[in-house]
């Protein structure tokens, strides 16, 4: 039921979060992914919130937390800096909450203790200056601080009668706000060797394989092809996430083909939303460097390129389909030249 079933199939988390009874009986497969409408969602924890389909599909960012799919869960996982619970006791009344410095006064208990010790100290204690922006006591008696309409001290203010020496002092200059710093682009990693664009190499920045399925795919492919390589990076012409290199899952340097294994992951965060856009950028960068990309897409992920394979998982026939794709790209004569001889026992089995 619904026209957009395939568009939502790769988002199992959103399928669980969406409830037709919260949205006037409309099913998720009836909602276009680009529809500018507010829908009601409910996460696995029970938080109910509203968001557009595009907002939910783009919600996973760089983090790999399950809480990324819910704004309330994301806020609880990474709370903002809280306000001090005793801020009203450690600052003068009317002081700005942004004031940072030593406490001039004290708590009510401290004031009572000082009053009991001696009344003269309490009587001589300075009071907060009227109109002070920081709430600190005035060091010049009870003289009124004259300010202009914009809140800055008046340069033509007369000298205080109690302090005639102040007339000899020049007017204090108002400190200009610091200039806004220009937004700097992220620096490009300098560990990439100076190689021609498209040259494969062993990168020191490439992360180690974290998926057991990828390692199994590598072993199954190595049992069929002799052109497997331990290299893990390709030199690019332009930076890709602060590196002049890309790290495909498997590299076939003799065929100039990169192989990627994609799944949505445990929490449905991988290769969807913004991560799908990053995959497309990576494929364009590799193709611009003279490589072709084959993505093995699982978990109902849609194909991104002309040679991608959409499979349910890694099976015995996956390697055969992958070899057929390699023949389509580089031709059967070149690919078959790297095939290993199948042992008689394996051929009989």
From TrEMBL:
It comes from Clavibacter sepedonicus. It holds the Pfam family DUF4379. Gene3D superfamilies: VSR Endonuclease. InterPro entries: DUF4379. It comes from the Bacteria. Residues 118-187 are annotated as: Disordered. Residues 14-75 form the Treble clef zinc finger domain. This is Treble clef zinc finger domain-containing protein.
